[in-house]
Amino acid sequence: MKKIYVIRHGETLFNRYHMMQGSCDSPLTKTGKKQALKAKEYFEKNNIVFDHAYTSTSERAIDTLEIITDVAYTRMKELKEMDFGRLEGQRDIMCPNDKSKFDTFFVEYGGESVYDMLKRVKSGFDKIFKSDYEKILVVTHGAVMMNLYRHIVDKNYKFDKALGNCSIFEFDYDQKFEFKNWIDHDFSDI
């Protein structure tokens, strides 16, 4: 059985200014780096040592991973954030709150639908599942994780706000993906 820890990257400059970033990138802030250190502390405190890691090819995900662990890792385009098309870099107030609209909203702006993004992400996880590694860290993005949760755990779950930076989903994998835990960190001291 594999233990897979899926984590969102730390806070970025675009996160701070409430701008959409999917395929575009922005650097981690000082706070984002501290959040990644807090996640590292969580893994160390719980004696979680990874055999291997996988990360989105986005700089914000790679930088988060390199703060958390020095284990060997593989960059995967399949783990990138949803593409928001021409709305990349725009204020996130442009993003629809209605789930039924969100699923296909960005297509008309040259971006991806949730379904296309999940198909891409699933192909990445299929490769991870076939690996020989047993304890795995996966660093990815908010929309990827929220939609994984919605499509694997609870189809009716409503995210009232964006998934927190460095939030962790813990899964077991033994012929199927099984959700085990959702870890949010207390960042009040950073």
Shape: globular
Helix share, percent: 25-40%
Major sheet summary line: 6 strands, mixed
How many alpha or pi helices?
Answer: 6
Task: Describe what you observe in this structure.
The chain has helices spanning 13-16, 30-45, 59-68, 99-105, 114-130, 142-152, and strands at 2-8, 52-56, 73-76, 135-140, 168-173, 177-183. The chain is α/β, with parallel strands linked by helices. Strands 3-2-4-1-5-6 form a 6-stranded mixed β-sheet. The model has no long low-confidence stretch (mean pLDDT 94).
Summarize the structure.
By secondary structure, the protein is an alpha/beta fold. It is built from 6 helices and 6 strands.
Key structural traits:
alpha/beta; 18% strand; six-stranded mixed sheet; 190 residues; 6 helices; 6 strands
Give the topology.
Layout: E1 2-8, H1 13-16, H2 30-45, E2 52-56, H3 59-68, E3 73-76, H4 99-105, H5 114-130, E4 135-140, H6 142-152, E5 168-173, E6 177-183
Parallel strand pairs: 1-4, 2-3, 2-4
Antiparallel strand pairs: 1-5, 5-6
Helix pairs in contact: 2-3
